[in-house]
Structures are given as structure tokens and as C-alpha cells.
Specification:
This protein is 49% helix and 17% strand. The chain is of the alpha+beta class and 143 residues long. A three-stranded antiparallel beta sheet has the order 1-2-3, with helices on one face. Helix 1 crosses helix 2. It is globular. It starts with a helix and ends with a helix.
């Protein structure tokens, strides 16, 4: 019995930890949204999450070499929109352009990389919620 109770406590602690991290992440993500000038390109912060994905050119997003620059490239935040009714379904939109990656201040580049990781963290929760909702629909269809 206490084993099940311990597992429940651990699970509850983990969930509340994720929610606290998520809340803090959204706050910092919004700060970066303004600081990096993306707020000049989009009307609202929420509009950011309408994109299918947000990507980065000019620096690595791989864990083993996170933020490592790609010589000769341009540091740019790209959003990928998707329109299933359009002839060309997927479209890249530049949200922010910072010039040649070699000339960008290291701390600023780190903020750009942080923005992408924080965006992806929140987007993954939104995706999880979406699929959780869809799974809930399966039991209702047979009624």
C-alpha cells in the first residue's frame, strides 16, 4: 500500500514540478519574444504558437553541441506555417534576422538558442494536450 502511495506522491511532485517549470518557461519565453524583436513581427505572443514549428539557422540545436555556430551562415529564426489548402503546403517565414552568425554577440546568440528551446518545450506540452484530448474522443465515438 505505501508503495502505491509513494508512487502517487512522486508522480504528483513530478507533475507539479513540470507545471511550475512550464509557467516559468512561458514567462521567460515572453521576455525573449520582446527582447529578440519578434514582437515587432507578430501581433501577439499567442500567435507564435499557431506556427507548425520554429527553427533556427546559423547555430546548432543539437544537445551535444548546443549553440555552436555554423561558419558562413546567417543567424535567423524561422517559423514554419502550414496551409493544407494551398498549392505549396509549407512555408518558411523569417521572424528575426540577426546577420552573419560570426558577428553576433555570443550572449545574444545564446538568448536566440534559448528562445527556440523554450518555444519547443511549450509547443511539446501543447501537442501533448492536443493528443490527450484526441484520445479522450475514442471512447465517446462508440456511445
Amino acid at each position: 500500500m505505501s508503495s502505491a502511495l509513494d508512487r502517487l506522491k512522486n508522480l504528483t511532485n513530478k507533475i507539479s514540478s513540470y507545471e511550475l517549470t512550464r509557467k516559468n518557461n512561458m514567462s521567460k519565453l515572453h521576455e525573449l519574444f520582446v527582447e529578440l524583436g519578434i514582437s515587432k513581427k507578430l501581433d501577439t505572443f499567442e500567435e507564435l504558437f499557431l506556427f507548425k514549428a520554429v527553427n533556427l539557422s546559423g547555430a546548432s540545436l543539437l544537445q551535444e553541441n548546443l549553440g555552436e555556430i555554423k561558419e558562413g551562415k546567417y543567424l535567423q529564426i524561422l517559423a514554419i506555417s502550414y496551409d493544407k489548402t494551398a498549392k505549396v503546403k509549407s512555408k518558411n517565414i523569417s521572424l528575426a534576422y540577426f546577420g552573419r552568425v560570426e558577428s553576433v554577440d555570443c550572449e545574444f546568440k545564446e538568448s536566440v538558442v534559448e528562445f527556440i528551446i523554450r518555444y519547443r518545450f511549450e509547443k511539446s506540452f501543447m501537442t501533448l494536450e492536443h493528443y490527450n484530448s484526441m484520445l479522450g474522443d475514442f471512447g465517446k465515438k462508440s456511445e
